[in-house]
Design goal:
Elements: H1 12-22, H2 40-55, E1 59-62, E2 68-72, E3 82-86, H3 100-116, E4 124-128, H4 142-147, H5 153-157, H6 167-173, E5 189-195, H7 200-204, E6 208-214, E7 216-225, E8 229-230, H8 242-258, E9 265-274, E10 280-281, E11 284-293, H9 296-317, E12 320-329, E13 332-333, H10 336-349, E14 353-358, H11 363-367, E15 373-378, H12 394-412
Parallel strand pairs: 3-4, 3-5, 5-15, 6-14
Antiparallel strand pairs: 1-2, 2-4, 6-13, 6-15, 7-11, 7-12, 8-10, 9-11
Helix pairs in contact: 1-3, 1-12, 3-12, 8-9, 10-12
């Protein structure tokens, strides 16, 4: 197949305008977005995306998990489609680009092909995966996980938010439950464009991250049970302070992750103490330890060392501790052919690039199980993400979308 010419690029201004238009839906309070999955705002964002796709001449498919598939036909009716996409849902205090750049970058590919009157042998399908963030309905990457056979659909439908509302019920309520069997689609390849969500590319002045691997992830919910007591009248030696035990365990988490530097990381982002009153010694602490590494053996080592340390700490302090695995996935090796297409695209277009390991989970991590998959990343300011202050430049967005465009074209095949 002929490689795309280096002067074939997307319309950066149009892409940027689309990003800004989508950002008007579900605005945050500090310049970002609050467009959580299966909210009315999510439904409004989906409707805008569908309208744009239909204006670009695409047909829209919708499966029973609410995943959206905008298809541009190819010339070979027997050729499997090349898929590209990400997600439109955001964190409660999310940015304008996390996920959205990948979806609208895919849409820009279709628009550019129309502008240039280019036909491809393989169809191209742009996807919006439901509930990538997992902030309202845990776990993250829920719908792509069902698509890839990682989760059962009935289990996913029963996930509840903080108000006890079920995923399946909310999907129906906002009107985005389709009839198509989830996971029935077959893919020639899948590409995902995403902001880095880390500081490496910006710090090194590199335009493009060629994602070769995805970190594996382990979420272990730890429950420490002590004894509630008055903070003023309980002697120090007689306390069973669950908050203090948690603090000591988290010091061990830091120590364990540092022992596997530089690629392993660990912390607790979700923490609850009970009864959370100023003058009551915490009787219970519940927190989730998040360990990540591109090596499965390292993840398992960190998990086991954390549990052993927690048991020792709590035994010494006269408290109980329990563990529940609440999420995780193994490290990902992305497809060499797809990774090569991204690297070829960056070189063809003259963008500086480097190999990079994704530190966050993405839909591509699950789709990699059922199709050849790879990711391309662009920098973000200060590496900041999952924050309303998340920011990228128009040039970074265009560079990432250009590389995506070329990688998809190389894989889908230009018809001369």
């Amino acid at each position: 197949m002929a490689a795309p010419a280096a002067n074939m690029t997307i319309n950066g201004d149009r892409l940027w305008d689309s990003l800004m238009e989508m950002a008007k839906i579900g605005p945050g309070i500090a310049g970002g977005n609050n467009r959580q999955t299966l909210t009315d705002e999510d439904g409004e964002g989906r409707a805008l995306f569908q309208r744009w796709c239909e204006e670009a001449g695409c047909t829209m498919g919708l499966d029973t998990m609410g995943n959206m598939f905008a298809r541009r036909e190819g010339t070979d009716p027997d050729a499997l489609p090349v898929y590209v996409g990400s997600h439109l849902d955001t964190q409660p205090t999310g940015g304008k680009y996390d996920g959205v750049l990948g979806v609208l970058g895919g849409l820009e590919i279709l628009r550019t092909l129309n502008d240039m009157n280019i036909k491809t042998r393989h169809p191209i399908v742009v996807t919006n995966w439901t509930n990538e963030e997992g902030t309202r309905f845990a776990p993250a990457m829920l719908a792509s996980g069902v698509f890839a056979g990682v989760h059962r659909q009935d289990w996913a439908y029963d996930r509840e938010d903080a108000e006890g509302k079920k995923f399946g019920d909310e999907l129906v309520r906002i009107g985005w439950k389709g009839d198509e069997e989830v996971g029935a689609r077959k893919m020639h390849a899948f590409f995902e464009l995403h902001i880095e969500q880390g500081p490496i590319l910006e710090a090194e002045g590199v335009d493009i991250g060629v994602v070769t691997h995805g970190q594996g992830l382990s979420w272990t919910q730890v429950t420490v049970t002590g004894k509630e007591a008055h903070t003023g009248s309980t002697p120090m030696p007689m306390r069973k302070n669950a908050g203090l035990a948690m603090a000591r365990i988290l010091e061990k988490v830091e120590e364990i992750a540092l022992s596997h530097a530089p690629h392993a990381v660990g912390a607790a982002g979700h923490i609850d103490v009970y009864p959370n009153s100023r003058n009551v010694i915490p009787g219970k602490a519940v927190f989730t330890v998040d360990f990540r590494s591109p090596e499965l053996a390292v993840i398992k080592d960190m998990e086991e060392r954390m549990k052993a340390a927690a048991r020792d700490i709590c035994a010494h302090m006269g408290m109980e501790v329990a563990f529940e695995k609440v999420g995780g996935f193994d490290p990902v090796d992305f497809d060499e052919g797809c990774v090569g297409a991204i690297r070829n695209a960056a070189e063809r277009l003259g963008y500086s690039h480097r190999n990079i390991i994704s530190g966050a989970g993405h839909d591509a991590c699950w789709i990699n199980r059922v199709a050849p998959t790879a990711m391309v990343m662009c920098p973000c300011v200060d590496g900041l993400s999952h924050n309303e202050a998340e920011e990228i430049s128009k040039d970074w967005a265009k560079a990432g979308a250009d590389v995506l465009f070329h990688a998809v074209l190389e894989t889908a095949g230009i018809v001369e």
